[in-house]
Amino acid sequence: MFEMTIDRVKAFESLIEAWTTPPLLLMPDFKLPFRLYIDASGDGLGAALYQVQIVNDKPVEGPIFYISRKIIPTEAIYGASQMECLCLVWA
């Protein structure tokens, strides 16, 4: 049974603050390298573009862009490796 404890309330409040406090997305700095995270499943593809920037004198890895889509029927036959490659090429 779920019990709303003080720790869970604090965690929820922390999550709300993170989702509502700027910057939610960083502006890209094209002089710095990017990091691309991808994932694929039997249902869809997803990617996130991140970059490490200096924010308040600290290096912070922050999101630049998120993207996702459903797979189409002809892609549903792909194995895990092919699906990950598809995701990389698509992203």
Question: How is this structure best described in words?
Answer:
This protein has 91 residues and is of the alpha+beta class. It has a single domain (25-90), classed as Ubiquitin-like (UB roll) (Roll). It contains 2 helices and 3 strands, in the order αβββα. The protein has helices at residues 6-20, 80-90; strands at 35-40, 44-55, 58-70. It has a 3-stranded antiparallel β-sheet with strand order 1-2-3. A hairpin with a 2-residue loop joins β2 and β3. The longest helix is centred in the N-terminal third of the chain and has 15 residues, at 6-20. The chain is flat and about 45 Å long.
Topology:
Elements: H1 6-20, E1 35-40, E2 44-55, E3 58-70, H2 80-90
Antiparallel strand pairs: 1-2, 2-3
InterPro entries: DNA/RNA_pol_sf, Retrovirus_Pol_polyprotein, RT_RNaseH_2
GO molecular function: catalytic activity
Protein name: Reverse transcriptase/retrotransposon-derived protein RNase H-like domain-containing protein
